[in-house]
Amino acid sequence: MSEATVLIADDHPIFRQGVRHLIEQHENLSIVAEANDGQSAIQLIRLHQPDLVILDLFMPNIDGLGVLQWTRENSPAAACVILTMQTDAALIERAIELGARGYLFKEDAYDQLHHCLEAVLDGKTYTSPSLASPAVLQSPIDSDVLERLAQLTRTQLSLLQLLGEFKTSREIADLMHISHRTVQNHRLNICTALDMAGSGKLLEFAVRHQAEIRQLTKGG
Fold first, then answer.
1. Which bin fits 83, alpha (ψ -120 to 50), beta or left (φ > 0)?
2. Which of the 8 DSSP states describes residue 106?
3. Which homologous superfamily is 4-132 in?
4. How does residue 106 score in pLDDT terms, banded at 50, 70 and 90?
5. How far apart, in whole angstroms, are the C-alpha atoms of residue 122 and residue 118?
6. CATH class of 135-219
């Protein structure tokens, strides 16, 4: 495996130092630059064209989502990993919509950063175990959740399953052969049916209840 180049962008120098230490233990990764704000991150991405960009969400000047969007449009070969303390499902969904290939909570960095970067370099998407661990996804079937889900249509259940697999709305549209607007309408209708406010809550629900969703999609 050839050496992959890495850029770290985080406004906390002590945390950057910790991330650098973790990466330096990996013989196939080489750090080419560090940034302490979003504007310098963009400048350094443009200059170094790294294979991997590790981004905090909240940085001065331009936040991580802004850097992520710029990278997708201007340096699409760079794979971006969000490394943050933010657990808000809406932020996770937006980051994935903007092309993040990994979303890792800082509390998981010590044990999971290498696994995350290896998965991303292998063309996969990686999410923090704290968000979607096998223990969560394979939890016992919840009959109350099944009852709530039973009111959804087959199409809505299929869409919800894809959402729980961290597919973006555009990916769902392509996979289901429907328009992006139709996906958005379905998501709104699902939120209404489940008495849920906000797409972020819907993503969290879809991730946590994949077992119940799969049972209904297979049994339907």
1. beta
2. G
3. Response regulator (3.40.50.2300)
4. confident
5. 6
6. mainly alpha
